[in-house]
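Q:
Just now I want nothing more than another pair of eyes on a protein record. Here is the record:
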Amino acid sequence: MSERMTNILGYLTLGAILVAIWILFGEDPNRDQGGRGEPTFSGLADRINETAKLVLKKDDRTLTMLRQSENWTVVERFGYAADGEKIRAFLRGLAVSKRREPKTANPDRFSKLGLGGESTQVQLDDDTGGVLIDIEMGTRVDNGRSLTYIYQPTDTRAWLVSGLKAASMEPTDWLDQSLPTLALERIRAINLIGVSLTRALGENDFVVDGLQETEKMAAAFRRAEPARTLVGLSLEDVRQTANPLVDPVGSVEAITHDGLKLTLVLYEIEDASWGQMTADYDATLADQGEAGQLPEAPVDGAAEAAAINEKTRGWLFKLSSFDANILRQNRADFVETSETDAAGS
């Protein structure tokens, strides 16, 4: 057999082998998609800090987070602050992700992996609008190793990969859920409906102001509940509004030993509890509270109040019903009277 014929047969054999590989495994021999243990998204680790936009899509829903300097916002919540650490953790997961196992190349079988029409599309853009990655995330494998099925157009098949965080489509899951809070030790007085709970500088327990001879204070832990609730307050959702078109159902006011006054006005809207927060600084309140050395007390109280108002102005915060009920208590919740005792007996 001539050398020319041998070469032709060799090329034909190689072509047949490549076709067989494609038929059996769905691999495109012209694509270098990486192998087991290699980065899932080639080159992303070097550019992940360029991410300026994170877009999630599923069914007919879209969720968008934007970076402005070092801060992130949630577009679908009117640009309210996002939980930056949660977003950075999600991006880190993409950057360090490794390929674990190649899966099917048949799109008709993608649904078994939560891909195709059932997937969550994840797109990262840089600050020029360029696309860093555009992928589909499918089912997460619950084996303690954070494994997820994914597909990206540059691959020939789906893969099981490591490192990815869950991609929730709920905007509230990405919000910065913290509200401006105070160190509990700073609080001198809590004013609720018809009652003031106060304490002197250095004291732990709150007392009921103006206690009558026929009244006895409730247990100390009950008197401390409003202050503890207020300093640990977190939001469940946000609304952008300056003037709610409903009447308030209550309010709570916290006054610190160093002159800050934090006010939370409470509303009931669509069977949910919402609060509107404002802050003021009054040097005369600092004099009344004896000021003193307090944990986390700012040097500039007026600047602290301004910073709180900057974050809360124009927003309503959805509160848990549990927290709202504590903050809507009145005098009867903190005292026991002899008349009440007599009626009970």
Summary: The mean pLDDT is 88.
